[in-house]
Each structure stands twice: as C-alpha cells, then as structure tokens.
C-alpha cells in the first residue's frame, strides 16, 4: 500500500502540525510532547480529560479533541504508546483544580506510560485518575495478557465523560460514568488487508486474497483466527455472534450500534455492514437507539471494520446526544 | 566509567543499526514498531550524549534510564528505562564480575516488576536471564553472548504470555521474540567491542 | 483490494438501506429510484435541491442529504449516472412551488440523464433548473470532451446553495450563487492505487509500486499522466501548481482549502498533506479562511487525495459557515 | 415482428453474456461499468419481455427504447435508448433491406444528436456506421458483421474525443472502444441466429 508521507520519522508531527493549522481557533499544538489541546484548556471550572495511545488510529484521539470530548491528546509514534514524559508534561499543562482524567486503552505500553506519568504528576500534588478502556471481545484468554484491549468503543467513553465534564461533573463522577459505559460496551473487529506503518513501508502481515483476520487488533496485530473471506452479511453475523453473547445484549435492550472503519474501507461498505447488523439485532429484539457509521478508531490504512454495541440507559443516551465539536466525527 | 560508557554506546548503536531487523521481528505477531521505538529513543540518548552526568557509573546509568524511559514510546520505554535505572542504582566500585552480575539482576527484577512478567513469558527476559547466568558463571562475555543467542532462538518454541504478541495465543509459537533477539544481538556486539579487565576477576 | 459486499448487484441498494436504517428520523429511502430524501422534504417554503451522479463517491451525494445541504440524491449504480427516470421521478417527488434545482457533475452520462429527466418534468409543468459543476483542472483539452469534470469541489456548491435555499432563496438566486461558487472553485486529484468496483472485483487499472496517477478522475479513469511516486510535499506542490494558476488564486486572496480523501487514504495522511498546502499557500500570500480535511467525494477504495481551492468572499463564506446536518461531514 | 423480436432478444442476450468482456474493455481508459450497465438494463428489458407492446415493429422498438433509456444508467442508457426509439420511429412495412437501413440511419442520427458525437470520435458509431454501410450495400448480415468487427478493431488506432475515455487524450490510443466492440459482437451474434427472408430483397 502506497502512502502520502515525507520522512517517516516526521509522519506524526507533520500530521499534528496540519491539524493545528486547519483548526487554529479551537486547537493548540505543543510539538515537544505531540500534544494537541483545546485552545481554551485548561479551564478551571472543569475536569480536564486526556487520552494518549499510539498514533495511527486517527481520528482517535487527536481529532476528537474539542468541546464535549477530550481536552487534550498526547499520542506516541505510530502504534507506540506515548513516552512517560509526554503523559507527565501533558498532565501538568492540563491540570485544573477539579483534576485530570487520564483515559487509557488497555495495552501494556500505554498502561506503563500512564502509571509512571501519573505517579510523577501525583508527586507534584496534582489530582489525577486513570480510567482504563477494554472493550475488545477478541481477546479471550486474559490470563496471558493484560486483558482485553481498548478499541473503537473508546469513543463512547470519551463522548460520555466529555459531555459530563462539560456540564461540570466531578472527577469521581466521571470515573463512575466512564466505568459504566465501558462495562456495557463490546467490540469485535475484522481485517481484510494488513496495514502499512510509514516507517516500515510494507504490510505488517500477509493475508491471502481469500483470507480475513477475524478479531484483528487496531495495531495490525493478528487476531483471533484467520478465516475464509465470505460475503458481508456472513461477516456481520460472525461479529455479532462474538459481541452479543459477551455482555450479553438481550431482547428488550436499547443499544448504540457503531460500524467503525479501520482506515482503508470506504463509508459505502460501512453502511452496507450497518444494514445487516441493524436488521439482525432487530430480529433478536435489540433496538438500535443511536447509530455511528464512520471512522472512529483506525489502524492506518487497513481495510476492515469493527462492530461495537453499547447498552443504553437514559443517562448514557443523554450524554451521547449532548453537543460536541471536533475536527471529525463528533457524534 | 569508560567501560560503562562503551557498553551503553554499543547498546545504542546496535539498536539503531538493527532498526529494520528488530522491527521485522516484532511484526510477525506484534505490531512492528519495536525497532523504530528503540532506534528513535537511543538516537535521542546519543543526541544528548555529551551532556550526560558522568560523575560515576551509577549516576550515568540512571541518567540514561531517565532519558530512555521518558523518550522511548511503546512498552520498550518503561521496560528498558527501568532496567537502566535499576542497574544504575546497583552500580558501585569495583565494577567486577559480581557487581556486573548484581547490576544485571537488579535490571531483571526491575523489568519483572514493571512488566508483571517472568522467565518463560517469551519476552526479552528469556535472553537476559540466561545471559546473566552465563556471565556470572563463566565470567566470559563471548560465552554469555552465545547463551543469550541460544536462549533467544529458543523463544521460538514458546507461547507469548506478555506483550502484544500474547493476544495471538498459540499463533505466537514459531517465531522468536523480538526483545529477546535484540538482547542477544546487543550482547554479541558488546562482546565484540569490549574486553573488560574486570570480567576476569 | 478486498471488499465488504454481498451480491455486487445489490451493493448500492444495500448501502442505501443501511443509510436509511441508521438515520430514520432524518432520511427517507425510496428503493425504486435509489432515492434518499430528507424526511421533511419537499417543503413548500423552499427550493428542493437534488443531485444524481453515479454511486461509489460516498459520502457524495447520498450522505450529504440533510438540513442546509441536499434535499435528495438519486444515484445510479457504481460509476454510472442514474437512469433518466430516476431523475424524472425524483424531481416529481421533490417538486415545490419554489422549484427544484438539479445539480449535475459535468459528465456525458449525467448530463444526458438530467437533460432528459428535466425535459419530462418540464413537460409536466414543473419548475426546474440545472446547475452544472465542473471544477476539475485535470482536464486540459476540453475541445475533445464535454469539458471539465465535476469532482470534490461539488461539495462547496452543495453547501452554498443548500444554505441559501434553507434561508428561503429563490431558484434564480440559487443558480447565481451556485455558478459563482463553481466559478471560483478548482480541484486536482492524484491516485496512489486503482479502485475496485464491486461488480468487477479487480482493480480498474494497474499502477506500478512507484507510480501515481496524476489528475485521476473520481471514476477511476486514468488521469492526466502517470508520474513517479514522490514524497508527500512534492505531490502537494504539483497539485498546487495545477490548481493555483488556473483561476488564478493570487496574493491577498482568502480561500477555503479542502484535502479530500479518495476512499482508501486515512485521515492522518490527509492532514499531513493539508499542512504543506496551507504553508505553501501562505508563502504565496493566500490565506486559508476555512479548512476541509476529510472524505467528501471518493472513488470507492482508491488511495489518493484531491486538493480544492475556493476563493472566498463574504457571501460565500457566510453560506459555507451556515449550520448544516448530514450523516457525515456537514462542514 | 418475429424477426424484430429475435433481433432485440439477441442484442439483450449478447449484452448479458458479455458483461465481463465489455466491462473489461471499458476499464482500459474508461470506468469499467459499460458491461454492467448494459447487462442490468437488458435484464430488466427481458424481465418485462412478455408485457411489451407488440402491435407492430415500430411500437415494439419504441417500448424497448423507453425501457432502455429509463433503466440503463451511465452514458449508455440515453445513447442506446435513443437509438431504439429512433429506429422504432423509422420502422414500417415491408421490413426490407432499405427499411432496415433507414432504421439504422435513424438510430445513428439519434446517437449523434444525443451524444454530440460523430464518426471518428472513437465511440460505438465507429462500428455502427460501417455496419450499416455494408449491410445496405451487400444485403448480407455476415458481411456487415465482418465490417463491424474490422471497424471496431480499427478504433484501437483512434484517440477518443467523446465519453469518459476522452479525458485521457492521447493515452486512449492503443485500445479498442468498448461500445464499438459491443456493436461488432452483437452484429456477429445476430448474423448467427437470424436468417431473414427480407435482407435478400
Ligand atoms: N510485560 C512485558 N514484560 C517484559 N517484556 C515485555 C513485556 N511486554 C513486551 N515485552 C518485550 O517488549 C517487546 C516488544 O516491545 P515493543 O514493540 O516496544 O512493545 P509494544 O509495541 O507491544 O508496545 C517484546 O518483544 C518483548 O520482548
Ligand atoms: N458522446 C457519446 N456519443 C456516442 N457514444 C458515446 C459517447 N460517449 C460514450 N459513448 C460510447 O459509450 C461507451 C461507454 O459507455 P458507458 O460505460 O455506459 O459510459 P460512461 O461510463 O462513460 O458513462 C463508449 O465506449 C462509447 O462507445
Ligand atoms: Mg507498539
Ligand atoms: Mg511492538
Ligand atoms: Mg460510468
Ligand atoms: Mg463506462
């Protein structure tokens, strides 16, 4: 897969510089820490919400910095958690009397960086909390890992705590809300092609013309298993079979349904997937209350998609529907 | 101090020279960024090389550890940074075989604590521990480097229980761990360039 | 390139069905004519705005149906202009006392279908006007063609006339505004890979690993010429060299700058392209007043991008900034 | 009427059978949808086949033209629809060689008007006109079909001046026009299946 890139080492900073140039009124860029923050942050009247994670998942997370969403994002290089001092310095810059909420997708590297960064910030007397997101049902045997990964469902946690923070919620209430959303959110992804990191210049793994990677991670890690490419509806059925029984989502539930593109799949195909998922859920008595069809958390240029369900209650639904502004896909 | 400097510089240069190789190893069941992360981080260490605190081996290693931990992203920053920090804390005079072994043991303990990992999880520990065992026993770097390579190659038969490769479960069998192989390659380079007076004692 | 697809013949209807299921409150789907219309259309107090064109360009045009944008879109199959009777029936359904504005991207097939459809609607006594969009500077020798193609710049025409229509503007004023926007809009695209139409199942053309298609069309038609793949900044320079002198855009101008993804290129790369374009324009004394970095008009799964400039004046800028709602990318 | 029905049905079946071939031809310098558009449109024509107005050849052809124009997307719907409509308008009794030629001329004029195109623009006209000339002269379908194929193949040397292929300018040289080749293939199939009593007269 060919890419638009200059020196691969500058891929992330050049992207961030472009982002800042395109949104000068709302965003501020601090090159030293790959930091993208709201131009009006930190605001003393609210908790600051910060997310790190590797780059290559755009719009997550640098492009969901904005009103009712993140106050800042400090990504690492492509697929690499941010170094600890990005987390530390970002936390210092975003500190407010109400505190800083650090959102972490559940990966070894990210957790270490945020744990270490938080320790240092706490030693400075700052008020911080970490909230871990782990919505990926693809990881079955959590004995051998740090547990389930945080993937596209992350958006719902950001959206909910972002809305609540905007309304003045306290740090402990944000933790409660974030945990609650994470607890009712499940995701499963499928890759049709491998992605190509700019610095590597070639696909991360080989996938035959009739193979798909079922349960693929958002870092191009191979997934649960390799399967034969089938038609789109059968793929949706397989994703639902992994996601629905996991919580489980049951007849009578109201859900948010997200079909998230992994970077190389056009939105036309995402809506085609959405159609079947919506219909199949209806057959199971599960009603879609809110729909999300777009790219939210990608894996560079990988062709593929993930399916996320969130079980809604009135509080979550209200927070998801609250106003938000971001460079892309605020809803 | 000259020995310590040489060793750290060799680690840095080896990591930079093997960026592509280490990255390719990490892309088999990982996410392919290991080579890039190490190379970029150690480049930054070399950038500030002249200004590093050289009071003694301990403070030098701790300064390196801080730089690595705060400049390398991914899992490797905290893991390698912690290793250098702990080795620095265990440094002292004379820098003899026992001391070097103690420093390596401190680094290993730091990695285990930071990574919640142990020997057998298919990580760099699976090369670093055999390397340390062999160095302690033989006092010979070349022998220890051979032990590291053998152990790194043996990770191919293991199933990953930590790090990103662990998500693939059984499918992680059949390829060597990138971190373990990096330890082996670095050990070989150190053994090539460093003829310490101390290790014989 | 592998795709999410069932029977390729159903690609377009299944996508449209998904779109309607995801947005039941705002959109209505009429399967007989591939028609997606606003749930509240036709509104007697405004001109209806309709666009056709082939499918495969999503979000154009079915996903920009909404408040302040299109009232309806009736696409044909992938890369095929809609049949004449889709245009005719859609026009009848959308008819209002203030009239129907038919937006047409300048291609032979689209023009014929809309000319014939309009003739039939006019014979029924309906009030209609056609507005043709042709922003693509890649087509140099217009003697041999129907002239320049309509590509991503189309979005700006839709946005401007959509906003004006929402404010109650009359049909002739919409024609004036649409022409004015089209007249100051220029686009040039580049393809890194070929796209794969679902019914064909293989790439539309072959492109070497180090080749790019400069001036590529949005239907996968080969472009102006094949060039060597260079770094991203050099590609941006080449696009600007084609676009800027064409109007020309000059020092002192205020412009909207769009970097549009062609379907397979992730938004990270689009912002990287944006950065250099913004900086180079600044060097030429051209100030970016509004930024658009996303997918607006794609070519299925093609990796690639186009660059569009619009010279702004107060009227255009106000219309572009007016509120709008659509399934994706309303701004 | 039986002859007319057979000819139209043969056109439809040939278009459906050659969907992939015609599409591939259109993808060289076009957008690859020509085969798909024709096939889907003619499928719809066959779907409603039983209900078509069969009062006479003229009304039958006009009905077909309406269906094609309103059901086939892309450039081909208006172009082929217009051709059928005009041919139907020129139909009459007896359906002899002169009448068939007149119907084909009417179709050609319709295409030219609708497409603002002419012979030499590298379109289906470049096969349809030689076919018509030959049929008028020889009265023999097989001879005319050969003329159509030769002419279709000769479009390879031409530069496209109309349709999507025209955007590529000089680069359209070297490949045959999809529409012209479709006319040749259809002509051959008609000559295979139809032995008109009329063409001899
Ligand atoms: N929990 C852990 N403890 C010790 N070493 C680990 C751990 N996880 C991974 N590693 C080592 O780190 C290497 C991968 O490093 P890196 O690519 O930077 O991590 P990632 O991309 O997964 O964040 C592995 O090959 C392994 O040797
Ligand atoms: N203006 C025109 N006049 C006559 N025939 C045309 C014209 N433009 C294209 N054609 C014919 O139509 C064929 C392409 O048809 P189709 O694929 O349906 O069109 P498109 O995809 O460009 O809308 C060409 O091969 C050519 O023979
Ligand atoms: Mg990584
Ligand atoms: Mg890695
Ligand atoms: Mg077409
Ligand atoms: Mg075509």
Envelope shape of chain B: globular
Assign an overall shape of chain A. Answer: globular
Per DSSP, the total helix count of chain A is: 8
Fraction of residues in helix of chain B: 55-70%
Count all strands of chain B and give the number: 0
Task: Walk me through what this model shows.
- Chains A, C: Keywords: Kinase, Transferase.
- Chains A, C: InterPro entries: DhaK_1, DhaK_dom, Dihydroxyacetone_Kinase.
- The complex is a heterotetramer, with 2 copies of chain A (331 residues) and 2 copies of chain B (201 residues).
- By secondary structure, chain A is of the alpha/beta class.
- Chain A is built from 8 helices and 12 strands.
- In chain A, the strands form 2 sheets. Chain A has a 6-stranded mixed sheet, with helices on both faces. In chain A, strands 9-8-7-12-10-11 form a 6-stranded mixed sheet.
- In chain A, strand 1 and strand 2 (35-38) form a beta hairpin.
- In chain A, helix 4 packs antiparallel against helix 5 (171-183).
- The longest helix of chain A has 17 residues, at 267-283.
- Chain A is globular and about 55 Å long.
- The model of chain A has no long low-confidence stretch (mean pLDDT 95).
- Chain B is an all-alpha fold.
- Chain B has a single domain (3-193), classed as DhaL domain (Serine Threonine Protein Phosphatase 5, Tetratricopeptide repeat).
- Chain B contains 9 helices and no strands.
- Chain B has helices at residues 2-17, 19-29, 34-47, 57-71, 76-89, 97-115, 125-138, 141-154, 178-193.
- One magnesium ion (MG) sits between chains A (54, 79-80, 109, 219) and B (31, 33, 74).
């Amino acid at each position: 897969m060919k890419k638009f890139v200059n020196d691969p080492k500058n891929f992330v900073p050049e992207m961030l510089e472009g982002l800042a140039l395109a949104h000068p009124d709302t965003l501020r860029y601090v090159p030293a820490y790959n930091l993208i923050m709201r131009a009006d942050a930190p605001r003393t009247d609210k908790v600051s919400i910060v997310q790190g994670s590797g780059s290559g998942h755009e719009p997550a997370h640098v492009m969901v910095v904005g009103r009712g969403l993140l106050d800042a994002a400090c990504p690492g290089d492509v697929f690499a958690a941010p170094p600890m001092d990005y987390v530390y310095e970002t936390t210092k810059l975003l500190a407010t009397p109400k505190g800083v909420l650090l959102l972490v997708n559940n990966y070894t590297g990210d957790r270490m960086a945020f744990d270490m960064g938080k320790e240092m910030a706490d030693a400075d007397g700052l008020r911080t909390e970490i909230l871990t997101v782990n919505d990926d049902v693809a990881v079955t045997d959590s004995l051998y890992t740090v547990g389930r990964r945080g993937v596209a469902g992350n958006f719902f946690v950001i959206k909910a705590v972002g809305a609540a923070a905007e309304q003045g919620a306290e740090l402990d209430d944000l933790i409660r809300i974030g945990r609650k959303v994470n607890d009712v959110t499940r995701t499963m992804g499928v890759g049709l092609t491998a992605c190509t990191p700019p610095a590597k210049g070639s696909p991360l793994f080989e996938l035959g013309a009739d193979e798909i990677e079922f349960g693929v991670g958002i870092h191009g890690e191979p997934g649960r298993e390799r399967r034969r490419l089938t038609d789109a509806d059968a793929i949706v059925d397989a994703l639902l079979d992994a996601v629905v029984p996991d919580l489980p989502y049951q007849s009578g539930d109201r859900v948010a349904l997200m079909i998230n593109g992994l970077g190389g799949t056009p939105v036309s195909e995402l809506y085609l997937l959405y159609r079947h998922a919506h219909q199949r859920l209806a057959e199971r008595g599960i009603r879609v209350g809110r729909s999300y069809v777009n790219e939210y958390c990608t894996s560079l240029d990988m062709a593929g998609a993930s399916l996320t369900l969130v079980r809604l209650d009135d509080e979550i639904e209200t927070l998801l529907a609250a106003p938000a502004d971001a460079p892309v896909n605020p809803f | 101090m000259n020995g310590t400097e040489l060793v750290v510089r060799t680690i840095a240069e080896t990591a930079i020279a093997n960026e592509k190789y280490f990255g390719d190893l990490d892309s088999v069941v990982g996410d392919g960024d290991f080579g890039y992360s190490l190379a970029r981080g150690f480049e930054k260490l070399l950038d500030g090389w002249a200004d590093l605190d050289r009071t003694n081996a301990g403070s030098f290693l701790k300064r390196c550890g801080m730089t690595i931990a705060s400049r390398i992203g991914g899992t490797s920053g905290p893991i390698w940074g912690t290793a250098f920090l702990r080795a620095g804390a265990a440094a002292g005079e004379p820098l003899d075989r026992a001391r070097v072994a103690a420093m390596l043991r401190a680094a290993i303990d730091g990695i285990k604590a930071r990574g919640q990992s142990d020997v057998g999880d298919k990580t760099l520990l699976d090369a670093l521990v055999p390397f340390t065992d062999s160095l302690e026993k033989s006092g010979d770097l070349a022998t220890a480097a051979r032990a590291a390579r053998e152990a790194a190659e043996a990770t191919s038969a293991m199933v990953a229980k930590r790090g990103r490769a662990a998500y693939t479960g059984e499918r992680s069998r059949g390829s060597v761990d990138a971190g373990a192989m990096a330890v082996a390659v670095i050990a070989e380079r150190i053994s090539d360039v460093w003829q310490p007076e101390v290790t014989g004692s």
